[in-house]
Write a structure and sequence with these properties.
By secondary structure, the protein is mainly α. About 50% of the residues lie in helices and about 10% in strands. It has a two-stranded antiparallel ribbon with strand order 1-2. Helix 3 crosses helix 5 and helix 4 runs antiparallel to helix 5. The longest helix has 22 residues.
Length: about 160
């Protein structure tokens, strides 16, 4: 290259190094097996799955896709927040800081969707049992248990 454009400043090298980290890392938002249980010892990851997709059998649970609604209904907000974090890296932030902020942001969106989302109503028997007609909210554990993890891309878990 000519005109000195082939030399990076220390800030430029730092920025490129953080971009390389972003290529290798991802933030996963949701439920991790073995991380939390309900009062009866049932894994919250299983409870989230049953509610997200629904179940069949003697006591079926209708699908209440709170995770999908969280992403589908907030795509523009999520995209804008990710762009904001990319700008923060350009201003001196780190990949880890950006991913942490994205995780916190997404966790909040999922929690808000659980609380305020539009879902199949509870059955009358469920309303009698828990004393509420609000789907997905009983003890609050499902909402409290959503979390995020920063991991290498393509890694298990």
């Amino acid at each position: 290259m000519s005109g000195g454009h082939d030399r990076l400043t220390p800030e430029g090298r730092r920025f490129l190094a953080e971009l390389e980290k972003m290529k290798r890392l991802e933030v996963r938002v949701g439920y991790q097996a073995g991380e939390a249980t309900d009062d009866e010892g049932v894994d919250m990851c299983d409870i989230a799955l049953w509610n997200e997709l629904g179940t069949s059998g003697a006591h079926p649970i209708p699908a209440r896709p709170f995770l999908r609604q969280s992403v589908d209904g907030n795509e523009d907000k999520i995209r804008a927040h990710c762009a904001q974090q990319a700008r923060a890296i350009a201003r001196g932030g780190t990949a880890e800081e950006a991913l942490k902020k994205i995780g916190i942001h997404m966790k909040g969106i999922v929690q808000k969707t659980i609380k305020e989302g539009s879902f199949v109503p509870n059955a009358p028997s469920t309303i009698r049992k828990k004393g509420s007609d609000k789907p997905l909210i009983d003890t609050g554990r499902l909402r409290q248990s959503v979390n995020y993890h920063i991991k290498p891309k393509g890694g298990g878990g």
